[in-house]
Specification:
By secondary structure, the protein is of the alpha+beta class. β7, α4 and β8 form a beta-alpha-beta unit. α2 crosses α3. About 40% of the residues are buried. About 0% of the residues have low confidence.
């Protein structure tokens, strides 16, 4: 009887070992893969690009709010592939977590990673909101048959009459955020206070609009590239790095249609092209002094 029991147990252990070997045929210790870094440049068909802004939430901390914002974007666009994410982070959360979260969320859904821009700002229009996400996605249908227009930062009064798809306004105070958003009823509107204690109350808005001279087959969107100084040399270097990344996607030099500079200081060196300049609380690197992202038209 004892011998039979021992034989039965031996067969049971053998079966378990064979089952485990089938699951891991190489007999190797399995480890979890680290999330991939988002690409510096991602592209999408100009005629099918859609622009969205995530709903604000005061629930949870930065990680939960970022995940919720990304899920809301994917739900709203019907699962269309985002090619660019721009995240404005407020509060005490670490902005370096955002690209990791983007990688985790998209990796879990087996979707291609978008380029990612991250900026630390002073405040958002909802109490306890720590992040708002702007997304550019490639839809299934043509929605921009007449091309697009990218308008650099300017007074919101100058955007009157523009058929805007997305408007991002940088304000000195949140007192009139609701009224400002109401001025663009057909657009996805994002209102940001870039500094906790802004030096002025001027409002600057940038926009993407229906129709215009941007009719290239594709647009390329870069993530933010950080500079570790704000002098002329550091500024020139960061622009060179961005242009080299874009050159891999299109002509040389790249046909830039929009450039944003986010800087910790109001003072800055001259830039090699026209930009929207915003003084912010911080950039993705704790040692960074400014960050730049760009959009370029790709002719092939």
């Amino acid at each position: 009887m004892r011998t039979r029991r021992i034989a039965t147990l031996a067969l049971l252990f053998l079966a378990m070992a064979l089952a485990a070997r089938k699951k891991n045929p190489d007999g190797l210790t399995q480890t979890l893969e680290f999330p991939k870094d988002p690409p510096m440049v991602a592209t999408g068909a100009t005629s099918r690009l859609i622009f969205q802004v995530s709903p604000l939430s005061g629930k949870g901390l930065l990680t939960q709010q970022t995940r919720d914002a990304l899920k809301a974007i994917l739900k709203a666009n019907g699962g269309a592939q985002p090619v660019h994410i721009r995240a404005f982070v407020a509060g005490s959360g670490d902005p370096r977590r955002v690209p990791q979260i983007v990688s985790e969320v998209f990796g879990a859904k087996k979707m291609s990673l978008p380029s990612v821009s991250v900026v630390l700002v002073g405040a958002l229009p909802l109490e306890n909101a720590q992040v708002v996400v702007e997304a550019v996605s490639v839809g299934r249908k043509e929605v921009n048959p007449d091309g697009l227009t990218f308008l650099e930062g300017q007074s919101p009064d100058r955007l009157a009459g523009v058929s805007a798809l997305r408007v991002t306004c940088f304000v000195g105070s949140m007192d009139n955020a609701g009224a400002l958003a109401a001025r663009f009823p057909s657009a996805a509107v994002d209102v940001i206070q870039p500094r906790r204690s802004p030096s002025g109350a001027a409002t600057v808005c940038e926009a993407v609009g229906h129709g215009g001279d941007i009719k290239a087959p594709r647009l390329a969107f870069t993530g933010t590239r950080v500079a570790f100084g704000d002098d002329e040399k550091a500024s020139a270097l960061v622009f060179q790095h961005l242009d080299r990344a874009l050159e891999a996607e299109g002509p040389t030099p790249p046909a830039i249609v929009e450039t944003n500079v986010y800087a910790l200081s109001d003072r800055h060196a001259a830039f090699p092209r026209t930009v929207t300049f915003i003084a912010v609380e911080g950039v993705e690197s704790v040692d960074g002094r400014l960050a730049v992202d760009s959009v370029a038209a790709i002719s092939r």
